[in-house]
Description:
The structure is a homodimer of 228-residue chains.
Chain A lengths: L14 H19 L4 E2 L1 H8 L3 H9 L5 E2 L3 E3 H12 L5 E6 L3 H8 L1 H4 L3 E8 L8 E2 L2 E5 L3 H8 L3 E4 L3 H14 L3 E4 L12 E4 L2 H15 L13
Parallel strand pairs in A: 4-5, 4-8, 5-7, 8-9, 9-10
Antiparallel strand pairs in A: 1-3, 2-3, 6-7
Helix pairs in contact in A: 1-2, 1-4, 2-3, 7-8
Chain A binds a DNA duplex (24 and 24 nucleotides) through helix 1, helix 3 and strand 2.
Amino acid sequence: MTERTPTEAARDIPEATVARLPVYLRALTSLAEAGTATCSSEELATAAGVNSAKLRKDLSHLGSYGTRGVGYDVEYLRYQIAREIGVTQDWPVVIVGIGNLGHALANFSGFRSRGFRVVALLDADPSRHAEQVAGVDVRPFSDLAAIVAEHGVAIGVISTPAHAAQDVADAMVSAGIRSILNFAPAVLSVPQGVDVRKVDLSIELQILAYHEQRKGPAGLDGRLEAPA
Amino acid sequence: MTERTPTEAARDIPEATVARLPVYLRALTSLAEAGTATCSSEELATAAGVNSAKLRKDLSHLGSYGTRGVGYDVEYLRYQIAREIGVTQDWPVVIVGIGNLGHALANFSGFRSRGFRVVALLDADPSRHAEQVAGVDVRPFSDLAAIVAEHGVAIGVISTPAHAAQDVADAMVSAGIRSILNFAPAVLSVPQGVDVRKVDLSIELQILAYHEQRKGPAGLDGRLEAPA
DNA sequence: TAGATTGTTAATCGATTAACAATC
DNA sequence: TAGATTGTTAATCGATTAACAATC
C-alpha cells in the first residue's frame, strides 16, 4: 500500500506533529475569537510559538487546507484540525485519586471546553465518598468497571500517590480503558495497545534546574550567558 | 575547543537525555530504598521504562560510572546523576496563581523532597492574601521582585489563567527569574536565555484522544488493534 | 580463564529547517 | 501580470537502536 485513497489521506501523522496539533487548535481558536477570518502560516506560527516552516510541514500531513497567495481560513482550518485530533466528538473521562491534584483536575475548565467530560471521580478512601467535587460525586474505586461500561469511557486519569498507580492502571485496563494520563510519579506497565502519557511536575522542575545550573549566577544582565 | 578537559567532560548533554535523567534518578532512589546495592543497565532500564541501550547511551554522556561485568553502584550513580541535574543543591521557587492548581502545586510533596523549596505563593487577588496554603502565606503579586531578590529565586511557576500568564512571565523576567514552568494554556514570549517549560493538561488529553480515535471501538479484545 | 556487562561505534530512523516551485 | 504565500523537496540535524569490542 504505497498509494493512498483520498479518504485515508490523513493517516500516519508523525508523533511530533500530533503533539503540536492541539497547540495550533488553541491558536486558531484565539484568532477566531479575536475576529480574524484568515491568517498566513507566518501569523499562525507566531501565535503557536513555532516557526512557519514547521507549521506548514505539519499541516501538510493533514491535507491541503490553505490557499496559496492567501493563507488559511481560520474557522475551516480550526475545524479540520479538531476533526483530525478527534475533539469534535465527546470523550467521557474518569479521574481516579481525588487528592489535591485530583480536585484541581476535576475543576479544570480546560477539559470540559475541549470535548472531555468528567463522568466520574473515584477514590479508594471511603471518607471521600461523601464529597462532591465540581458537581460530581466521588465514588468508590470498585465502581470503576461499571462506570466505564456504562459511559463508554476510553480515557482514564490517574492522580493517586505513586504506590497506588499500577493497581489503578491494571484496573483501568481490565475495565477496557486504553488511554491513560498518569500524574503519579511512577512508571506504569501496561499491555500493548494501551497508551500512557505521563505528566510529572517534579521532572519538569528538574529539567529546568539542570539548565539553570548551567547558566551560572545571574549577572547584571542575565542574558549574557544565553545558550546557543 | 574540540578536546575536553576532564573537569568539563560532562557538558552538552543532549536534551532527550537531560529529560530522562530525572527518571533514572527516581528509579535509582526506588532501588536504593528497596535495599539494592548494585544493578545492571538492564535492571535500571526496566525500572525506568526505557531500553538498556538507550540507558547506557544516556549515561555515557555523564561519564563512566559503571563497572564492566558488574553493573552500577546504585548509591554512587544516584549521587552522580543528582549532581549532574543540580538537585544536590536547594532551589527556591515561587508559585504565582493560587487557584485550584496552585493549591495542588503548593501542597505537592514531590517538590520539597527533590530540592525545590516553595518560598512564596503569590496571587493578584487581594481576597486570597488572608490565606495560608501548605504553611506558606499567600502574598500580593507586587511583592514578586522583593521576594526573588531576597531568596535568590531562579525558578518560577505560573498557575494563573491564560490571560494573566504573559504579564506574570514579564514580571518574573524583570525580577531576574530565568526558568519558568508554565501551567497556563498560553504561549509565552520571553527573552533569549530564559527557559520556559510548559505543562498543558488539555493538550495531553487531546494527544490521547487522537490515538484513541484511531484505535476504533473496543472489541472483545481491545489489544487486537495494537499500533505498530 | 570464562562469563558478564559496560561504553562505544555505526547504522537507521525521525524531526527540523531553508529554499523554492507551484499557484492563488 | 505581479505579488504573496502555500505545499513540497532536499539537506541537515539529533535521537534511537543493535551490535560488539573492551574489560571487569
